[in-house]
Specification:
By secondary structure, this protein is an alpha+beta fold. It has two domains: 9-54, no CATH class; 60-230, Alpha-Beta Complex (tt1808, chain A), CATH 3.90.1570.10. It is 20% helix and 36% strand. It contains four helices and 16 strands. The protein has a seven-stranded mixed sheet with strand order 1-3-2-6-5-9-8, with helices on both faces. Strands 4-7-10-11-12-13 form a six-stranded mixed sheet, sandwiched between helices. The longest helix has 19 residues, at 60-78. It is globular and about 50 Å long.
Amino acid sequence: MRGMGAAVKILIQPEGVRIPAGFRDLEAFREWARSDDFPERGRIDWIGGEVEVDVSLEDLTTHGTLKTAIARRLSELVEDRNLGVVLIDSSRLSSGPGDLSSEPDVLALLKESVDAGRVRLVPKASGPAGRFVEVEGAVDLVVECVSDSSAKKDRIELVSRYHAAGVREYWMVDGRREEIDFMLYRMAPNRYEVAPPDPQGFRSSPLLGRGVKIHRIPIGSGLVRYDLEIR
């Protein structure tokens, strides 16, 4: 465990992003993240006392199209019904209980969670009123699409962090192989429980009140698309 006042470990994947030294804690990192000095390129997260920087190029066929397909289908269920919003890329989620400040691939936030005070919208330090750059608290759904540089973090570290943060559902999706690895973690008292697939491969989402399944669909010319099927 990191001692009080000890220097924060900074992980850069690959090297090339300059990070200020000496963050005391999560709040110090969040203050920097909301400032004008925060870099525009790269994913920079605070995870349990470590600052992790990932500036790897995105894999188009196993990451880019995958998160886009999931966000598009979720938007139909959430935004088209005016239940909330679906955010993709560079949308910062922070949680004191989770000791976490990250930028998930996809994030779903319902109005009811904001109204109930489970989630707070945080403005930029120098931004105008009504403009927000950070979500703080127990959001409704987080999706992480696994990449080569994020596999350990997505599969291990973030499972416990998102649970501690109160995230109702965490979807971990790995499209790097022909058969998609999809883990749907549902909130339970002490840890997430994994939603098992039914005989048709659908996993039950309490948040959506529906079964969900993800298909990988090669369409030729080196292109791959995905479909989030909901029933």
